[in-house]
Amino acid sequence: MDNVFKFIIASRKAFIQLIDSLTIDQLNHIPTGFNNNIIWNFGHIVVSTQTLCYVRTGIWENADSVKYVSAYAKGTKPTYIVSQAEVDELKTLAIDSIVQIEKDYQAGVFKHITPYDTATYGNVLQSFEDVIATTSGHDNVHFGYAIAQKRIINNK
Questions:
Q1: Which residue of 51, 75, 129, 150 lies most exposed, with the fewest beta carbons within 10 A?
Q2: Across 1-156, where does the E strand assignment appear?
Q3: What is the pLDDT of residues 82-92, one digit of tens each?
Q4: What is the pTM of this model?
Q5: What is the pLDDT, as a whole number, of residue 155?
């Protein structure tokens, strides 16, 4: 599992590099053919991982303690211009939340979870290891969307 956490952090750092290469206007721009933008894709992975790991597994009762969940949860789309301060906070949360999840994993917090079905992938996640592997794949799907959006934005 150590390698899985390292991979997630490395891929999030790559996503952060993409974000750092763009202006705040570019991050907020919704390209033609999309219903979201680069910063929404990034915020979505930040809140989704915490929700999948803690709420859907039954560790937390609800997602109230997941910052920005109402802006970036599944089924949402951008409704406001994201500030640089929010971008910076999301970048910090992207790494810090994974570090905390890894600490909780090592402490046995996820030893007993409530299995759940994923609408996106159609699989029942039976263990925390299933959850974190799915999270890794989910992160990279949205990183791929952001890369595609950046190409469109740079070709405007």
A1: 75
A2: 116-117, 124-125
A3: 999 999 999 99
A4: 0.95
A5: 87
